[in-house]
Design goal:
This protein has 148 residues and is mainly alpha-helical. It has a domain of 100 residues. Helix content is 61%, strand content 7%. The chain is elongated and about 70 Å long.
Length: 148
């Protein structure tokens, strides 16, 4: 009688210096469907914060809106990568867009190593290198220094 072993797509990824891990099921079609939806939501937020409607609001209102949008993204991240992922990755804060970008900068190459076929194409499509990245880290660092 022929026999095959169960094939599982979960990959354990350490996400902090405490040794906390998440399990990414890179072999799951649902993972990539949810991942695609997460990226689409990120793109919508990116477009919204570029609108005149958003930029005309007072700075404190912009910040409150961004906190709300970031909490929505964090819920999406937890849905895609597993419950409590954001707490493990970011701690007890609402992370800045730079921290969220850093998370994706680190997780996408791992996912690309484990992806195959169509799933790999999806990851490459949504990789920051696609459009040269959405955040210029050097410019943001310079702006933070300038505004201190």
């Amino acid at each position: 009688m022929e026999k095959i072993n169960a094939i599982k797509g979960g990959t354990e990824v350490q996400v902090n210096d405490n040794g906390d891990t998440i399990v990414c099921n890179f072999g799951s079609q649902e993972f990539y469907a949810d991942f695609t939806e997460l990226i689409d939501n990120l793109e919508k937020v990116k477009k919204y914060v570029s609108t005149e409607e958003f930029t005309r609001k007072p700075e404190i209102e912009q910040l409150r809106i961004m906190i709300g949008k970031t909490n929505e993204i964090m819920s999406d991240i937890d849905r895609v990568f597993g419950e409590r992922t954001c707490k493990k990755v970011f701690g007890e804060i609402t992370p800045s867009p730079i921290l969220i970008t850093d998370f994706f900068d680190q997780i996408i190459p791992i996912a690309q190593r484990y992806a195959n076929g169509r799933n790999k194409e999806l990851l490459e499509k949504y990789s920051r290198e696609r459009d040269g990245g959405s955040i210029n880290h050097n410019r943001n660092r310079q702006n933070r220094r300038h505004h201190k």
